[in-house]
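Batch 3, record 17
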Amino acid sequence: MIIDHPLLGPRDAAEFTYLGDAKLIDRPDWQSETAAKDFYEYGYLRDNPAGWHQELWFHEAGDRSWLVVTRNTVTHEISKVEMARDVARARGRSK
Amino acid sequence: MHDLQPMTALGGDAPQVDTFDHVTITENDGLALASVAARMGHEKTCHTTLKKLLGAVPEPGKAVLHDPEAGFWMGPDQWMIGAPRETHELLADHLKERFGDTASITEQTGAWVCFDVIGPAMPDICERLCAVPIRRMTAGDAQRTMIHQLGCFVIRRDNPEHIRILGPRASAGSLHHALITAAHSVA
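Prediction for the assembled complex:
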């Protein structure tokens, strides 16, 4: 599997480590009324789709950047690779 | 007063040189290093200071081979700056004065071992060591990769037969072993 790094171009997947669902970016608000439930869901509940999935990958053997990779879990086709910090900023995090 | 003797990364009094017919592997003990990481919101000012220092801001996967300070890209908004240790032993302090609050500077001299691999067999050796596309790389290309399970930087220098390898100093012996093994295997 080849991951097309947004800055460095196509790199072998062996250089990366996988973390999991990119929903981890959406950390709940700890001051919210429903924080206990939100953090339970954030910590333990994941969708396990057979198909397109947004996931976090770490370029460990490269520039050590975090990426959001949109990958089809059935075919391993990758449709999109973004810098995780750009995705997080677009979602209003790390202002 | 203590009477301390400096030693190189491989533990010798002088840098180790291994000479083969087709390549020379030299431990380079004369390098002062410091990393620069732009602080959030200060990226533009940091870039300006870098440009003044090196002549250009190193692009992703690239080095700027400038004299006396040179630098290469390590990651988004992170660079490594190198200079001769003789003249720039306090490199990190000097950079901190120049960059101020726009960047975090970390002394790196004691964290890395540097090997210069020079000779006609350099590309063959490099191919046995790591997955960088050495024959496609040109002068000033710098990539981080794995050599012998160690995260290393591979920098292609002006001389087409020369690569510089920066690896973790604590594993200098293991990295040296890998380089020597690769050099023997292409003999």
